[in-house]
Amino acid sequence: MTWWTLSFYLLVLLAAGSVFSVKKDAYPDRGALFDRQGWSIWIGIFAATLLKSVSAIVLWSPWSFRNQPAIVPIYFLAEISVFVGVLLFYRLITGQPFTLLGFSSERLGIRLLFAMRWIIGVFFVLYCVFYIFLLFQSVEVSQAWLMRLYRNRDLVTALMHFFEKMWGLPSVVIPILFMVVLRPFAEEIVFRGLLYGPIRRKSDPIMAALISSFLFTLADGSIASPHLLTGVLSAYLYERTESLFPGMILHGLLNLGSVVYYFGGKNVISVVVRKTEAGWMTLLLAALFVGVVILYRVLRKKGYGWGGTVSIS
């Protein structure tokens, strides 16, 4: 995220906070988890500002880690501190349990199974489209597209390359945990947990999903990223399951793709290799999707479900 994109992002956050803080509640109270999230939108705005400003200051300062490797530990420490700070800030300001954000374990298994149908289904469609594209496009066009896709994962690959160069291959587990676990955890708390509910009360679930996802996309620093669509899906799963875990899983799996790219070496831009991988992944995901759908329906018929609101106690 460059300085001008950060400035634009902060202006949009300020505008969203100003509009929805003065707007009256519009969506009827149906007793859902989000109707019990009584905090102001400004808590989420502050957390979103802090989350991206700290990383932008560290990464896009004159001491960029590409030239000064010592910045990497500072970057990790800064982001982890923000992760912890957001949670402490929530508890301090609201005094409410974390379950109200969407961390209840009640009937979590069936709720996650519901979400996994969508998550696996989305990845199946993506791999299917990817395979068809590589199958019918010329080698030159496919090669250029794979190169562009690889370059878009610059931050993740740069972090992993730094750790491998400095401390050896086993050390890359640190950036993997950071990108696949910690970052999805923090960003889902902010953009779904803290922002979705207040916006939803002032508009409706569809508008809340679109706005929170748009803010999430701006935070990534690129409108061309897939975060708008994945953010909408995360918001939908959050609405239906009243849990942040499905969005964290989806977010983590998407970031895991960058890790796979790193370990792929030269094969990541090989049209033949990627086409073969995409074909097998499409078949595997299709089988998983059918299995999860069948299991979910069997459990529903046996009475497993979450018809009422999820407890926050």
From TrEMBL:
Top-level taxon in the UniProt lineage: Bacteria
Segments forming domain CAAX prenyl protease 2/Lysostaphin resistance protein A-like: 172-256
Gene Ontology biological-process entries: CAAX-box protein maturation; proteolysis
GO molecular function: endopeptidase activity; metallopeptidase activity
Alphabetized UniProt keyword annotations: Hydrolase, Membrane, Metalloprotease, Protease, Transmembrane, Transmembrane helix
Parts of the chain that traverse the membrane: 37-60, 72-93, 113-146, 167-186, 206-237, 244-263, 278-299
Signal peptide bounds: none
Database matches in InterPro entries: Rce1/LyrA-like_dom (IPR003675)
Name of this chain's protein: CPBP family intramembrane metalloprotease
Lineage, highest ranks first: Bacteria, Pseudomonadati, Nitrospirota, Nitrospiria, Candidatus Troglogloeales
